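Bumping with the actual sequence this time:
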Amino acid sequence: MDITRLKLSEIEADSSQPRKIFEDAQIDDLAESIKRYGLLQPILVKKVGDKYVIIAGERRYRACRKLGLEYVEVIIKDDENAMLISLIENIQRENLTALEEAIAIQNIKDKYKCTHEDLSKLLGKTRVYITNKLRILNADDYTKKLLSDNNISEGHARALLGQRDVKKRQELARKILTKGLSVRQVEKSIRDENQSYQSKEPQNENYEELIEMLEEKLCTKISINSEENESGSIVIDFYSKEQLESIVDMIIGEM
């Protein structure tokens, strides 16, 4: 691993990197640490034209720039795996928002043709974690904006996807803001509307409890359709082949 020194003016941020928001207070703290102890970890860069683009370490770069440093220590990497290194670095080491992390994971999935299982191994996350994170990207722009601005939680965003009508979904999202609905209340509201639309008998409290248990275990929307003779069916929603495989894995794993 060869460490070299570059002029800070030769280095620039990567416009395609998933992290878009940097807290000023965190940059200030990092700058103070660098001022006292020096740059403990070099910045990873790749050469693009006559500049060096950051692969990993933009916070360190911003802190050094804030200090007015002329030179910084860097490690120059080949371009071939630069994007993968950058994305993994951001996912594992930076405080990304849920939406930024989902975008970063999707970028790896698209560029390297990864399955959810591949991503699980690559990032050290469970398949369920990967599937749930990527589901956020199916949200409409309004819901994504609420999530990005921290007005709703990641759990709220996933729950809202159970409402397929975008206008109704956005109305429900506004109720989260005005009435402070919990994730469970959002899920119940969607479930009740779906049951009403299907002209099904309301599910009794025993089924409600079972539904909550199943949804928590399988991380997706569950419906139970019951008949008068107490027979019925369970409907498990999935949004991609990978999520279906993940659900099957969880069910088989309990057998």
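The tokens above came from a reply further down the thread. The domain at 97-253 is CATH 1.10.10.2830 (Arc Repressor Mutant, subunit A).
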